[in-house]
Each structure stands twice: as C-alpha cells, then as structure tokens.
Automatic annotation (TrEMBL), chain A:
<keyword id="KW-0560">Oxidoreductase</keyword>
<dbReference type="GO" id="GO:0016491">
    <property type="term" value="F:oxidoreductase activity"/>
</dbReference>
<dbReference type="GO" id="GO:0005506">
    <property type="term" value="F:iron ion binding"/>
</dbReference>
<dbReference type="Pfam" id="PF20256">
    <property type="entry name" value="MoCoBD_2"/>
</dbReference>
<dbReference type="Pfam" id="PF01315">
    <property type="entry name" value="Ald_Xan_dh_C"/>
</dbReference>
<dbReference type="Pfam" id="PF02738">
    <property type="entry name" value="MoCoBD_1"/>
</dbReference>
<feature type="domain" description="Aldehyde oxidase/xanthine dehydrogenase a/b hammerhead">
    <location>
        <begin position="20"/>
        <end position="138"/>
    </location>
</feature>
<keyword id="KW-0500">Molybdenum</keyword>
<dbReference type="InterPro" id="IPR046867">
    <property type="entry name" value="AldOxase/xan_DH_MoCoBD2"/>
</dbReference>
Automatic annotation (TrEMBL), chain B:
<dbReference type="InterPro" id="IPR036318">
    <property type="entry name" value="FAD-bd_PCMH-like_sf"/>
</dbReference>
<dbReference type="GO" id="GO:0071949">
    <property type="term" value="F:FAD binding"/>
</dbReference>
<dbReference type="InterPro" id="IPR002346">
    <property type="entry name" value="Mopterin_DH_FAD-bd"/>
</dbReference>
<dbReference type="InterPro" id="IPR036683">
    <property type="entry name" value="CO_DH_flav_C_dom_sf"/>
</dbReference>
<dbReference type="InterPro" id="IPR016167">
    <property type="entry name" value="FAD-bd_PCMH_sub1"/>
</dbReference>
<dbReference type="InterPro" id="IPR016169">
    <property type="entry name" value="FAD-bd_PCMH_sub2"/>
</dbReference>
<feature type="domain" description="FAD-binding PCMH-type">
    <location>
        <begin position="1"/>
        <end position="166"/>
    </location>
</feature>
<keyword id="KW-0285">Flavoprotein</keyword>
<protein>
    <submittedName>
        <fullName>Xanthine dehydrogenase family protein subunit M</fullName>
    </submittedName>
</protein>
Length: 789, 261
C-alpha cells in the first residue's frame, strides 16, 4: 500500500497555493477588454416600479450600457430545480424569477438595473445617477400573517403567499393524531430555526466572456456545480446549447450551499457580454452578499413527541412554516420537505411520523440549502424535544435516547418516513461520546463551576443525516428536475501519471488530496502521480457538483468505477506483455505479475504500451488508457453521531462559554482522517455560530438590520473550544464501493441542539425553570429567560 | 469610495490651515471614516491626515498626569501608558491588532461613537481634552452620540489624564462588532469616585451619579447593590434590550470596583 493511500492523514496539497496566495479565484480572472457591472438593487422590500430614468446615467463617463428588465424580454426566468407536490396532489405555486425586476421589487437587494462601464467606480457613479421611482407597498414579512385571508401578496399572479402545504407521510396523518391523543405522555415544543446568512469567505463573482468569432460563451463563476449552472442557464434562461457554453468554477472560497444555485448575476454577465461584445465582470461586495446570496434555515416549528408508559416513542407530529423568501431559489422547495421530513424518525424506532410544512413567500431574500439543508432543522427540533421530554419524565436524556434507538441488529431499517437506513450503530457512538466526555463525573465538574458562581450544563444530541445525494430515480419521483449521479474520467498518461476529471467540485473540502489517495491505493502508485481536475465543463464529464456530503460517496464511487475499468484493461495489456492468461495477472504495489511466477511488468510499462502499441493485442484491444464512469447511488448514505457540548453560563450576564465540544461520528470508512476531522471542526463551528451568535433580523419594513459584520455575529476562533472529534465507530456504507458515508455537513447538523441542550441543562441545574431559548442563545436572551424562569 | 485629495501636514498649524478649506476633513487612524467612505456614505473632498504630526504622537507621564498625543495609536497607549494601568488595559482591548495599530485616541474621542471604549476613560478620569485652540474639560466635552464640543476644523492635539488611586474598565462585548455593548470605567480619586458608562446609554457616554455617590462613601461592590438604572434610558437593539443593558452596567460596575482591589 502506498504511504498516502486510504486511511492516511495526507496533508492537503491544495493548501500550498491557498496559503501562499497563489490560488486562482474567479476575481483573479481578468480578460482583455473587460468591463465592470454594477447592480442597482432595491432598497425597499416591496414596491411597484413606476419609472426608471437612466438618461443622465447613460451620458456619464465610461458608461457602456445600462440594462433593465426590458433588455431581457426574450430570456427565461431563473428556474427552480425541484417541484414539490402538496398534500392534496397539486404542484407548488411557482412564480417567475426574472433576471432583473419586472414591474415590482420583492425584497431589499432585488436587482433592478445594471450599469456596465469601463471601470467599477464609473459604473457605481452612474448607478447613483439612475432615477428609480418606486411606489412602496406593504411588505409581507411574518409567515403566519402572510397566509391570512386578504394578506398582501408577494406575487400578484399567484393565488396566495402559500407555495405549498406539504404533508408527510400523508397517509399516516390520522394514525399520528390518534397516537398522540392516546399517548401516555406528550411533550410539545415550539421553536424557531433562525435564518442564517451563509457568508463564505469569498463573495460571489461572475465573469462573462462571449467570443463572437465562434459564437461561444464562457462563464467563470463561484459555483459548487458548474455543469448544473450550464444546464439551468443554457437551457432555461438564455437558450444557449451546451456545446457553445463553457462554465468554469476555478478555486472557490467556500460555498456552504450558497454557491449551488443559479443566480441572476451569472445569466446577466453571460448575456450582456454578447450584447456589448466585451467581457463583463461582477464582483459582489460583502454588503451585496448579505442581500443577494440565498439565506438558510428560517423555520417556525411546533413539534409533539408522544410516548407510551415505557417511554418508547409512539409518534412524532410537526407543524412547520418554512420561509421561501421572495422567489424560489434553485433547490428551495426540496429543503423543508424531502431533506427535512424524511429525517424526522431520527435514530429512533418511532413508528408513526407526520410532518406538515407550509412554505411561504415573503418580501425577504430567498432561502435555500445551507450546510446540512433541512437535516439540521429536523435534528434540532427532534433532539430538543427529546431533551425536554427526558426532563418532564425525570429520565436521563442519554437513557431516553438509548432505549428508543434503532438497535444494531435491526439494520437495514425501514423508517416510516420513506428512507431505509442501511447501517448504523447508534449505541456505539453514544457510548463513545459519553466516555470521551466523562459523563459519569459531570456532577463533580458542575459543583466546581457552582463554587465559582457559574452554571455548568451538559448537552447531548444524536443525529442521523441522509447524505450521498442521491438516487436519481427516487429524487425524480419526488420532484427533482435533475439526476444526482456523479461522473469521473480517469486519463492515464503514457508514462503512467494520471489525471482524474471529476464532476465533484472542491471549494474547501480537500478533494484534490482525498481523491488522489483513493486512486493511489487502488493502483499502488505514489499519490504525486495523480492529479484531480475539476470545475470546468470543457474538461470534466457532465457532473452534478458538490453539496449534500456527496462527493466521496457519489463522486468518489464514480472515480472508483472508472479506475476499475482502467485496471481491467491494464491487466489485459499486462497479460499480453507477459504472455500469460489475463486471469493470472495480479496488480500489487504498482506492478503486474503473473501469479505463481516471478514474471512482472511495472505500471509504467503497461501504460507506455497502451500509447506506443508496438507489442500490443491491437486485434482485440483499443490502444490508450482512459475510462469514464457515471455512478448513480442505490440509496442515500446515513452518517450519524453523538455530539456533546459542555457549557458554563455566567448567571450575572447570561453569557455562555463553551468549555468542551465532542463529536463521535460514524462516517463509515474514512479516507483521510485529518481532512475528516477538519470538516467536522468547520461544521461544528458553523453550528455553534447558529446556536450562539448568528441571526438574520428584518425590521417591520423588511430592511435587513443585521446586514454587516457589525451586527451579524459570525463565529470566531475565540468563541470555540478545542474540539474533540472521533470517528472510530465505523459501520461502512453497504451500497457504495468505498463504504463511505460523507462528513461535510455532520458538524453543522449535530451541534446546534447539543449547544442549546447544554444551556438549558445549565439553567435548570441552577434552579431556573427555563424550557427553551430560541437560537441564537445570546447573552441577552439567556438573561431574559432567567428573569422569567 | 469617491475621489478625494489627500494631504499629510507635519505640524498642527499646517493641519489647521488645511482644514479651513471647504470640504476638508481630518483623518485620524481612519477606523470609522475610511469604511464610511468605502460605503459611499461620506465624501470629503480633502482628507487631512494627522498621522504625520510628530508633536501629536506619544505618551508622557509626569507629576501624576499621563498626557497622550491625539495621533497616538491604541497599541502605543497599551504599550506605553503603564503609569495609568487601567487606561493601558482599555487601549489594549480595543478591536483587534489591526485596529489598535491604526486607530488613534484623538480620532476615537473626536468621533465619540456611543460604543467606543475611550470616551468612558476620558469622562471617568475627568481628563482634559486639549485642542489646537483650547482646553476642554471632559464633563463639557461629550454632548451625546457622535456629538462633542469640538468646533469645525478643531483638532484634538492631546488628552491629559490625572492618574487615579485605583481604576478599572470592564467591557461586555456586543457579539458581532465586539464594540462595547456596555462598558464601565471606574476611577477612584482622593476627592471621590467617578463612574462613566459607554455602549449602553441612549445619549452616548454618561456618568452614573448614584454609583459615584455610593462608591465615594463606600468603595466596594456592595455599595452598588441597591442601585439601578432605568432601561428606558438605555439603547435597545437586536443585541439586547435597554433593561438588559441597564443590568449589565450594574454588573460591570461591581466587577470594576472589585477589580480595583
């Protein structure tokens, strides 16, 4: 086995360029003759556009052209990639999402017109000279008010502000009601899952370049999935066939979901470049990112948990309002439904589940997937209500979970919410986390804190997620307008080095290292001989990109399948060179040998023969060594884990300090333990950010009050403890070749309930009768709760 | 940012002359003005940098007084104002290293951001704000949020702090900006105790008279116990209510007194 094969904590090769400032991000791309686009955006949440006067601006220095919606009369709207069917069998309401506002503006930040100028400053100057007459309308902000009869409508051509009323599993609705009615004990919790602004380090950028000579378009963009952008923009918005449209997503500085979607700015620069026959660049400012990147979460939920006299869960019923914002972002409808309702069994044997979700249009920035996407919302409510239930019945929360866990011998386990978990061992991860955190001696630590005037709390959460997204035939039935396979081409060069072209996209995940380790392991050559190429539709086969913790599980599997084809062909060549039967050829440590003999040929000898086929079975075998595979997963993968947070609350100020955070995850097999630990660290940091700090607040006029880092609290290193992570509990995935499950989102899914459970535990132990505090659990909210409790 | 002219005088007199031009604006460390200009919310025609004026830079301790030049950075105060430890500690806790190396005491006090740290030290110390034209007592200087006694074109050349017998600054940070959500500076002098509060008050930095009286009579945390501030007079925003800030001020005052030892 090569030293940097599967299981090695190989250092990330991409970090050399990132840490030395040598990365090539979209904003680093400058094309000769480039112009600059400045978007003029709505500063009101809801209004009727009476008039746009661009005459003064057009006369200003450097201005090339000013675009309004009228310039896009022939273009389509920004498409939505998922159609949800409501509980009455009807399709969701789907409003048009124009590239530039048509007649109305629907959220602060909605683009109205765009100035293209020779310099960015000239474009901004001209933008300020455009006179826009907007008649303000009442903004639609509160989701429950938005659904009342006679409410102002965000979209006049829809029947109401309801996108859909979804029930799952609809056939169980009455049975769940009955189970709750007849339960021994029912615990109810009402909560808000706070809206988050993604804030990747790199804001979005798009550069459009039309080449008139060959009628070809190139879009450089900050995307997690360039082929998806090519498909959506080419086929649905601009009508450009794929062979004339290249989409490149070079180094991308974080996405967290917000760079999955097709945005208006991408279509704009692509189209405008043709109109003015020059390259067009747009770079988002941080302020713009706050009001134009799709936000995350924003659910208002009531959950009820029913138990029998043995405190076995008998039913879960939830009632959620999910904010869509003003338009449907690419995957928005799927998040509160299929990525949320299907997880509501959690790690438990609850036989009956009913999830109701009302998705609502409001005059706010659109909401879509954000790290975890639906699964954090499911996990948070479930793990919070279980904690509350344990308190109500006077049982140890770990014990209540343990007795309701699906047992190891019950896998594969068919849940009542459609998904079937292939493997898992929840008892193992729970025991591991309790052991790592010295649960048995927590009371001593609490007493020590109390002696210092602090309230110490222990918070536990267990989670399950559905990753490795996703079986295409299944998601097609559920309303997806795309398949969710992945692709890879493995190109072996004449001297034996390898370029792997993957449809996955790395924007921080370390694929260039991890993927290379897998191929190095399979062939037995040094990892330095393998390059991973991604992010360019002109290079890689049609791929679906990176999100939903799918890269190693789906993209990695495609790469394994293509590499297997390579090895099969290489064995045929080796058999010819060694004058042996193909069945007798063995590949080990980069050398083909004939079983039971000392005859062998090196990997490079075979690859050279493939490209210099002088001694080669040309009558039976094509020259060359390049294979492509598409992999469509048979099921989701189901990572799970137990997370523990230990906090101290300052009763004088309400401030929460996180003393320790422990994650015991089951990710199945692990390729690079260091990278996996880093993914968990990042996810947990984001989860702690949501739990303690981050909040997106609109005022009564729909203005974003937390529109900068002065008021939107991002987590910082000083807010974090040193994480204690473990992934030694491994139940390998049964349906993909690597036995992997994915690790990208786990941290953000499992951590928020662990943090809030810990804070509530601290307050309860301190004598405060506080059942719940909505996130972010800020000092002022903790203090206010203590005044009530 | 819009285009502007930039001048960097080397004396106070040159700076005063430059600031007489229409549209001229003094630039200290630029920690507030430059971001505002980047957002196109300010558009001075000329920036008059005060960072090249040697007579306005430095910390001088003599005769129970610490005098700090108006263009002295927070980092320099943190490192050099050891004669007034509470003041040095306050300066060392402002923002982050980049802010502390660029931001200046004169810029902060001239701006009088209601959540800035320095105004509480100036007011609690009964310091004297020295300008190119006059000397202004701290009690006369602060006139509400972002409002001061400074005239148009007037430059803070130095601030003189009488060193107290004991002092301490306690800051509770706003979670996002890390500015003071409430900050309390307690300074004990031979003739009484002064308590100044930043970050919390509706009208910017203020003296808490009841606390001063109580602490002048009995300099211990217990002296504060029965006192309270009205939340109605405090800032309420997405980070916390006025009542919460009023509570924080009391907690921080007690902690500051306790820390005075």
């Amino acid at each position: 086995m090569p030293k940097d094969g599967i299981g090695a904590s190989t250092k990330r090769r991409e970090d050399i360029r990132f840490l030395t400032g040598a990365g090539n991000y979209t904003d680093d791309i400058n094309i000769h003759g480039q112009t600059y686009a400045h978007f003029v955006r709505s500063d009101v949440a809801h209004g009727k556009i009476n008039n746009i006067d661009t005459s003064a601006a057009e006369a200003m220095d450097g201005v090339i052209k000013i675009f309004t919606a009228a310039d896009f009369a022939s273009a389509g709207g920004i498409p939505c990639g998922w159609q949800v069917t409501d509980r009455f069998g009807q399709p969701m309401q789907e409003p048009k999402h124009p590239i530039l506002a048509e007649g109305k503006v629907r959220h602060v930040g909605d683009p109205i017109c765009v100035v293209i100028a020779e310099t960015l400053e000239q474009a901004r100057d001209a933008g300020e000279a455009i006179e826009i007459d907007i008649e303000e309308l009442e903004p639609v902000l509160n989701m429950k008010d938005a659904l009342k009869d006679g409410a102002t409508k965000v979209h006049d051509d829809l029947t109401s502000n309801l996108c859909y009323d979804w029930g799952f599993v609809e056939e169980n609705r009455d049975a769940v009601d009955a189970a709750i009615k007849s339960a021994h004990h029912v615990t109810t919790l009402e909560l808000v899952n706070n809206r988050l602004v993604p804030n990747p380090m790199e804001p979005r950028v798009a550069v459009g370049h039309y080449a008139r000579a060959n009628d070809e378009y190139t879009l450089y963009t900050t995307s997690q999935n360039p082929h998806v952008i090519r498909l959506l923009m080419g086929a649905f918005v601009l009508g450009i066939p794929e062979h004339k449209l290249r989409v490149v997503a070079p180094d991308v500085g974080g996405g967290f979901g917000s760079k999955i979607y097709h945005y208006a700015e991408e279509a704009f620069v692509t189209y405008a470049s043709k109109v003015i026959n020059r390259p067009v660049k747009w770079t988002s400012t941080r302020s713009e990112a706050f009001i134009s990147d799709a936000h995350g979460r924003d659910h208002v939920t009531k959950i009820e948990l029913a138990m029998d006299e043995n405190y076995m869960f008998t039913a879960v019923r939830t009632d959620t309002y999910a904010n869509m914002g003003a338009y449907l972002s690419t995957f928005a409808p799927s998040i509160p439904t299929w990525l949320h309702g299907t997880l509501m069994a959690g790690n438990y044997t609850t036989p009956l589940v009913y999830v109701n979700v009302k998705a609502v249009f409001t005059n706010t920035v659109p909401v879509d997937a954000y790290r975890g996407a639906g699964r954090p919302e499911a996990t948070f409510q479930l793990e919070r209500v279980i904690d509350k239930a344990a308190r109500e019945i006077g049982m140890d929360p770990a014990e209540l979970r343990r007795r309701n866990f699906i047992k190891p011998e019950q896998f594969p386990y068919q849940t009542p919410v459609a998904v079937m978990y292939d493997t898992g061992n929840y008892h193992a991860t729970l025991d591991k986390a309790l052991e790592m955190t010295d649960y048995a001696n927590f009371d001593k630590r609490a007493a020590e804190s109390k002696a210092r005037g602090k309230l110490r709390g222990y918070g536990l959460a267990h989670f399950i997620e559905a990753c490795g997204i996703a079986p295409s035939n299944l998601v097609g039935q559920l309303g997806a307008r795309a398949g969710l396979y992945e692709s890879a081409t493995v190109r072996v060069n004449a001297t034996g080095s390898i370029s792997v072209f993957t449809g996955s996209h790395s924007h921080g995940q370390g694929h260039e290292t991890t993927f290379a380790q897998v191929v190095a392991e399979m062939i037995g050559i040094d990892v330095s001989q393998i390059d991973i190429v991604h992010g360019d539709t002109s290079k890689t086969p049609m791929g679906m990109g990176t999100y939903g913790s799918r890269s190693i599980a789906v993209g990695g599997s495609a790469m394994v399948r293509a590499t297997e084809k390579i090895i099969n062909k290489a064995k045929k060549i080796a058999a010819h060179l060694l004058e042996a039967s193909e069945a007798d050829i063995e590949l080990k440590d980069g050398k083909f040998s004939v079983a039971g003999t000392d005859k062998s040929v090196e990997w490079a000898g075979v690859t050279l023969a493939a490209y210099v086929p002088h001694n080669y079975p040309l009558e039976n075998l094509e020259p060359g060594l390049e294979e492509t595979a598409f992999y469509d997963p048979a099921n989701f993968t189901y990572p799970s884990g137990a997370y523990v947070c230990e906090v101290e609350v300052d009763p004088d100020t309400g401030k929460v300090d996180i003393l320790g955070f422990t994650a015991a995850d089951d990710f199945g097999n692990v390729i690079n333990p260091m990278i996996v630990a880093g993914q968990v660290h990042g996810g947990v940091a984001q989860g702690i950010g949501q739990a303690l700090l981050e909040n997106t607040v609109f005022d009564e006029n729909g203005q974003l009050l937390t529109g900068s880092f002065m008021d939107y609290a991002m987590p910082r290193a000083s807010d974090m403890p040193s994480f204690d992570v473990d992934h030694s509990c491994q139940t390998p995935c049964t349906h993909n070749p690597l036995g992997v499950k994915g690790c990208g989102e786990a941290g953000a899914i499992g951590s928020p309930p662990a943090v809030v459970n810990a804070v509530i535990d601290a307050l309860q132990r301190g004598g405060y009768n506080v059942d719940h505090i909505d996130m972010p659990v800020s000092p002022s909210r903790v203090w206010a709760a203590m005044q009530q409790g | 940012m819009y285009n502007f002219e930039f001048v960097k005088p080397s004396t106070v007199a040159e700076a005063v002359a430059a600031l007489k031009d229409e549209g001229a604006q003094a630039l200290g460390g630029g920690q507030t003005l430059l971001p505002t200009m980047k957002q196109r919310l300010a558009s001075p025609e000329t920036l008059v940098s005060l960072s090249g004026i040697a007579e306005m830079i430095g910390v001088n301790a003599a005769g129970g007084t610490v005098t700090i030049g108006g263009a002295t950075s927070h980092a320099a105060v943190a490192a050099q104002a050891g004669a007034y430890p509470a003041l040095a500690a306050l300066a060392g806790g402002i923002g982050d290293p980049a802010v502390r190396n660029r931001g200046t005491i004169g810029g902060s006090v001239a701006n009088n951001d209601p959540a800035a740290c320095y105004p509480s030290a100036v007011l609690a110390s009964g310091a004297t704000v020295v300008t190119n034209a006059r000397e202004i007592a701290a009690d006369d200087y602060f006139q509400g949020m972002f409002a001061t006694a400074l005239e148009e074109g007037e430059i803070i050349t130095a601030i003189r702090f009488p060193v107290p017998q004991a002092a301490n600054y306690q800051k509770f940070e706003q979670p996002a900006s890390r500015f003071a959500m409430a900050g309390v500076f307690v300074a004990k002098y031979a003739d009484g105790v002064r308590v100044a509060v930043t970050g919390a008050g509706n009208d910017g930095v203020f003296r808490w008279a009841e606390a001063e009286a109580a602490l002048s009579a009995n300099f211990s945390p217990a002296a504060i116990e029965g006192l309270s501030l009205s939340g109605d007079d405090m800032i309420g925003d997405v980070h916390g209510s006025g009542a919460y800030r009023a509570h924080l001020v009391k907690v921080l005052t007690k902690r500051a007194v306790a820390a005075c030892g």
